[in-house]
Amino acid sequence: MPLSLWLSLAAICAMGAMSPGPSLALVLRHTLGGGRVPGVMAALSHALGVGLYALLTVWGLGALIVRFPTLFQLITWGGAAYLAWLGIKAWRAGRGGALEAGAMATSNRQAAREGMLVALGNPKLILFFVALLSQFVTPDMSLLERAIIVLTAMVIDGGWYVLVALGLSHSRVLPWLQARAHWINRLTGVLLLALALRVAMGPLMGS
Fold first, then answer.
1. Which of 72, 63, 23 is nearest to 44 (CA)?
2. Which residue ranges traverse the bilayer (predicted)?
3. Which pLDDT score is estimated for 207?
């Protein structure tokens, strides 16, 4: 995989990870309720769930492209519509949005379990990954290239939420984020809408 294409993949994965939603709220709750370690545990287990969905999507997309190209196109457009919905939701989010999450008593085991369940219990991740990975997957991709895609999605997701947990474990960070959440949400919304438009236009592999 060319470096320029991988950088595009990494940027899109980062955009998806940073979008406001239940995953951010989960890491926030466990960090505020139990400190740095439970927050990191939630982040890492969430990344494992994301990696599983990415693996299933990568291995299924190649066959779908070959056998059912029209169905694949419809699913891709559905994924683009979902990205657009996420963008609109982020744009319209209030000043706090997903940053408004109360603390809760927690443990490392509970944080790890809930991190995995939030990822696996969100079937919309499949739509997200179909929209995202359809830009990069081809039927003749090598095993190494598929593994790179899956690991990129997993490492970026885990890395982002670990940084969130580490940052939020410092008491001064959360008020700073909450004060700027309105603009953070709007910027995320614009980026997701731009990604949705790019997905609807066609794969990066063909450009």
1. 23
2. 41-66, 117-136, 148-171, 183-201
3. 41
Q: Which of 151, 203, 185, 198 lies closest to 20, judged by CA?
A: 185
Query: Does residue 134 contact residue 76 with C-beta atoms inside 8 Å?
Result: yes
How high is the pLDDT of residue 206?
44
Tokens, residue 76: 């891709």
Locate 1 and state its tokens. 């995989």
Distance between CA atoms of 101 and 80, rounded to whole angstroms? Answer: 28
| Pair 195, 12: CB distance under 8 Å | yes
Return averaged pLDDT per consecutive 10 residues of the chain, 207 residues in all: 82 79 75 80 91 84 70 72 74 59 67 82 71 75 88 93 83 65 70 74 53
Closest CA relative to residue 25, chosen from 161, 158, 127: 161
* Domain layout of the chain by residue ranges: 18-206
CB 192 within 8 A of CB 87: yes
Taking the C-alpha atoms of 38, 171, 19 and 143 in order, what is their torsion angle to the nearest 10 degrees? Answer: -40
pTM for the structure as a whole: 0.69
Q: Would you state the pLDDT for residue 137?
A: 78
155-158 long-range contacts, CB within 8 A, separation 24+: 155/47, 156/10, 156/13, 156/14, 156/17, 157/13, 157/16, 157/17, 157/46, 157/47, 157/50, 157/51, 158/43, 158/44, 158/46, 158/47, 158/48, 158/50
